[in-house]
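seq:
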Amino acid sequence: MKTLNTSSPSAVKSGIILAVAFLVAIVLWLFPLPASFTAIDKVSLSPAAQTAMGILIFALILWMTEAIPFHITGLLGVLLLALFRVDSFKNIISIGFGNHIFVFFLGVLILSAFITHSGLGKRISVFLLSKTGNSTRMIILGFIITGTLLSMWLTNMAVAAMLMPLGRSILQEEGVEPRKSNFGKALMISICWGSIVGGIATPSGAGPNPLAIGFLKEMAGIDVSFIDWMVYGVPSAALLILPVWGALLLFFPPEMKKLKKTKEELAQEYEDLPAMGREEKITLALFLLTVVLWVSSPWLEKLLGISIPISMPVLLTGCLFFFPGLTTTSWKKVEQEISWSGILLVVTGISIGMMLYRTGAAEWLSILLLGGIGGIHPLLQVFLVVLIISFLKIAFSSNTVTATIVIPIMIALSGILGIDTLSIAIPAALTTSMAFILVTSSPTNVIPYSAGYFTIKDMAVAGVAITVVASVIVSVVIYLVGSMRGLY
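struct:
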């Protein structure tokens, strides 16, 4: 029987980090900072806000060092908020676990699981890639486009999990050695980046998206519909495809122009797929129904006279999958595909973020970090928000963690500056998912990285360049679309 070696260096290091994090939270709780230090532009930290800040720092230390799992840190943060009397435990829990975004996230994960298990995801991927031919440059573009289109509707992680085996099989058939081939590096990173690009297009594309929508509803009373998000997200994603492709070709020019396989052989792989089965057809039908309900929800609300948040359509279709006679996939199989840790991180993140906002800590942080952007041109405001958050993500190590911290800050800042909340919250929301630099920022990046064809440095160097370019593109798109909608 194996026993846990509690004295191992990693365990000792994690224990020390955990102790330091707790100490910081306790010190800020017991010994509030003087008003002369915390007062910024007539905004001071209340004792409750300082305690919330201490717990945020506690969580940040653990999130950045990964001393314990991300979601466990979130749960500890919720406990500390109650123990240090920021609010009652019941209220803190209800804010996060009682939020409809929990249901939305669960529904999207169920949908992704059925698309994977039914074979529909693989069929779509192989079809799209069969159209690229055997040019290595076009194959890289094909993976980016495929990843973008799929991750608009599925979780980024599910898309990366579908595309990685396809990419690896191409590289293995060509005899490409891990970490020694530019083509191998570009192809695998294209899986990461294609999924990321598609993830910003719709609310269902990435975990931080529904989190941002939840914050806007709870803190600012703003309902962001599926269409509202897509108006900004889809053009941003579409315009990022070619720059992402160009960056990969610039940093990793393929050493081979064509694959050994002919264009006809690649097309034959799609032809050799078995005919669509009943479960695959039902999955496709329910997927399309979900999309139609998401897009048409504003009109359905007027017709039915009820509110239809983005969580309702995917909950409906998620339940329909399990109706007798429709599909054969059991809940036990689907349950294995659901990232419960991801769900816990999202709901605890909502609780922590709301406490930062309600205590005034988010307002204080917003002035400290971005208080100087008030008098500048709106386009430059948007660009600075996007660029600063893009590089702040390096410290936060997770897209969801980034959203937990920056969205409440942006909402608070909009009130201080007297500007429309969406004018800086939308840029911030889209940016939290743009994890182009660090492999560790998202499980989406870890999956292709695990194949071993590129290093952390490979992605980081190219990622810095595309982050700057993406910041410009997203800023211009948001400003132009926002101007047409009367936002700027």
